[in-house]
UniProtKB/TrEMBL annotation:
Organism: Ralstonia flaminis
Localisation: Cell membrane
Domain of life: Bacteria
Membrane spanning stretches: 6-29, 41-63, 75-96, 108-135, 141-161, 182-200
Pfam families: LysE
Record membrane topology: Multi-pass membrane protein
Keywords from the UniProt entry: Cell membrane, Membrane, Transmembrane, Transmembrane helix
Name listed for the protein in its UniProt record: Homoserine/homoserine lactone efflux protein
């Protein structure tokens, strides 16, 4: 078992990192505003499933490959930039076919949430640092990985929900066609801004 001092340090690290603004939380707020809390569940589940997968990969040592081959991290970065540009295009130029809700659901489902996390360098780095800092050598590694992963997922769920709920509260009040067009432009420009930030860092 991990000492309470280590848990305090872990939560002191994880909570600010997970709840802080970034590409993932921006998309969570977007799904909340566009689809409401219930409609956001598929994207949210995909988002957290990818966090689980990354925790297991890095916690069990398989992520060492990414450190040995920095080109893989660069590839992830550029795939992430392209994905953000794809999302921006979807917001700025919505398809003429189908209702707005159908269009939103198609681009913000489980797969989109999973993919968003898998190509987000910030999340990769955060999880790598988490295990580097809080795994104790010599203790049962598998047990530690499972405990830290479970705690991290609790933090993720608790910190991501306010983004979804906030998006719903703020954005679903504005549902007229004109307001939806403005939202599309705002979200699209946000995605372009995030893509630019990721490309330049």
């Amino acid at each position: 078992m991990l000492a309470w001092e280590l848990w305090a340090a872990f939560f002191g690290y994880a909570i600010p990192m997970v709840i802080s603004p970034g590409p993932g939380n921006t998309l969570l707020a977007t799904t909340g505003g566009r689809l409401g809390i219930r409609g956001s569940v598929p994207f949210w589940l995909g988002f957290e499933a990818a966090n689980l997968v990354l925790c297991l990969i890095y916690g069990l040592g398989l992520g060492r490959v990414l450190h040995d081959y920095p080109a893989i991290e660069q590839a992830l970065k550029w795939v992430g930039v392209l994905y953000l540009l794809y999302l921006a295009k979807g917001f700025l130029m919505p398809s003429a076919k189908g209702t707005a809700e159908e269009r939103d659901t198609s681009c913000l489902g489980f797969g989109a949430g999973f993919f968003c996390v898998m190509v987000n360098p910030k999340i990769h780095s955060m999880i790598v640092v988490m295990f580097a800092q809080f795994l104790k050598p010599g203790a049962g590694m598998a047990t530690q990985v499972m405990l830290l992963t479970a705690a991290f997922l609790v933090v993720c769920v608790a910190c991501h929900f306010p983004w979804i709920a906030g998006g719903k509260v703020v954005l679903q009040r504005l549902r007229s066609p004109r307001a939806l067009r403005i939202q599309g432009w705002i979200f699209g420009l946000c995605m372009l801004g995030v893509a630019t930030y990721v490309a330049l860092t």
